[in-house]
15-hydroxyprostaglandin dehydrogenase [NAD(+)] (Pygocentrus nattereri), 267 residues
Amino acid sequence: MMALQGKVAVVTGAAQGLGKGFAEILLQNGAKVALLDINEKAGKELETQFNEAYGADRTHFYPVDVSSDQQFKDAFQKILSKFGQVDIFCNNAGIINEKQWEKTVSINLCGVVRGTYLALEHMKKENGGQGGVIVNVASLAGLGPLAQTPIYTATKFGVVGFTRALALASEVANYGVRINAMCPAFVRTPLIDSFNSEEQIGQFMGLADFTRSLMEKFPSLEVEEVSKGLLLLVKDDSLNGACLAMMRDGAGLVSFPKEIPKTPVAL
Ligand SMILES: NC(=O)C1=CN([C@@H]2O[C@H](COP(=O)(O)OP(=O)(O)OC[C@H]3O[C@@H](n4cnc5c(N)ncnc54)[C@H](O)[C@@H]3O)[C@@H](O)[C@H]2O)C=CC1
Ligand SMILES: CCCCC/C=C\C=C\C(=O)C/C=C\C/C=C\CCCC(=O)O
C-alpha cells in the first residue's frame, strides 16, 4: 500500500464537485495537493479553506484551462518549483456540452492526455523519475452509452481506452508508473444540476426522460463515496490499468475479456 504522507498530488477540476472531494481525501491522508481549475475565484477560496483546515501551505491553487497546453505546462513547472515533486496526478476536469462538442473533446479527452503525458514525463523511471500513480476520471458512460450525450460518452470511452493502453505500455516498458481509471455512475455534483439545459444538451434534450429512467437504475452517489474509490486506486500498489466502476449498490473492478466476445455471422 502506498503511504500518502509527504506525497505531492495534482487534481484538475478541483474547485468543486468530485475534484474538491478528491483533493480533500488526499489531504486527509497526508498528501500536499495542487488544485487546478479554470474557476479562479472558487479555486482560491478553496485553497484558503483547505490551508486553514489542514495546515498552512498544504495546498496551492493554480488557474489552468486543461484545454490549453501552455497553461498546463506552465502550471506543472510552478508546482515542481513549489512542491519539488509530483507523485499522484488525478485528471478529473470534465464538462458536458453536446453543442460545443469539440470543446468537450478538448477538455474531457485531450485534457486527460495532456495531464497524463506531463505527469508521465516527470514520473517515469527512465527519465530519472521516482514513479507514481495517475488516476483518470472517466464515467460509467465510458463503459456503456449514455444516449443523451454521445460526445460525452465518446470522450469517456476514450479515457478508458487511453488509460488501459498506457497502463499496458507502462507495464511492458517498466515506467514505474501506475495508471488507473474511475467509472462512477451519477454523482450529486453541480454537473448534474446544470444538465437540464438546452445550452449543453442541444438536439438531445428530448431524451431527458430516458436519462431519468437510467438515473432510477443508477441512483446518485455522494462525492464522499466516490472519493474513497480514488483513494483505493491511488494506494493499492497492485492496481495498474484498473477501471473502478462505482454504483450506489457497490463498487467493483471491471473485468475486460481477454478475447473479443462475438456472435459469428456469415459474410
Ligand atoms: N457528476 C457525475 O454524475 C459524474 C461525473 N463524472 C466525471 O467526474 C469529473 C468531475 O465532474 P463533477 O465534479 O461532477 O463536475 P463539476 O462540474 O461539479 O466540476 C468540474 C470542475 O471542473 C472544472 N473545469 C471545467 N472545465 C475546465 C477546464 N477546461 N480546465 C480546468 N478545469 C475545468 C470546473 O470549473 C469545475 O470546478 C468529470 O470528468 C465528469 O465527467 C463521472 C461520472 C459521473
Ligand atoms: C451503462 C450505461 C451508462 C450509464 C451512465 C451512468 C452515469 C454517468 C454519469 C455521467 O458521467 C455524467 C453525469 C450526469 C449527466 C447525465 C445525465 C443527467 C440527466 C439529468 C436529467 O435529465 O434530469
About this structure: The longest helix spans residues 150-173.
